[in-house]
Amino acid sequence: xxxxxxxxxxxxxxxxxxxxxxxxxxxxxxxxxxxxxxxxxxxxxxxxxxxxxxxxxxxxxxxxxxxxxxxxxxxxxxxxxxxxxxxxxxxxxxxxxxxxxxxxxxxxxxxxxxxxxxxxxxxxxxxxxxxxxxxx
Length: 136
Prior knowledge:
Strand order of the largest sheet: 1-2-3-6
């Protein structure tokens, strides 16, 4: 059975890199959000963003966090991770700093976003159970 995937990433700096990952053909049925769509969504305020994220996660089996230079600690990245985790979806991170952006440049490796999120009443970080892969 094919996985239906939600990609979480820092939009402005990493949308080009996220597009490369989507276009690899590994995951089907994941329509990218256009600049105009994202602008409209964000102008609607926090509740509209939460609703959009919930709708995008509906029917998905996993969340892939594409980790760029400034992904960790971002409000909506954290929300997407927590929502996916709480909904029982698979959650994994993949560093994308080595992929080229539209200017043919790589980025600096960012921090692990799962280090910022605890889980349960254990006091442990989500990074102790959720993997973040750093491909060569």
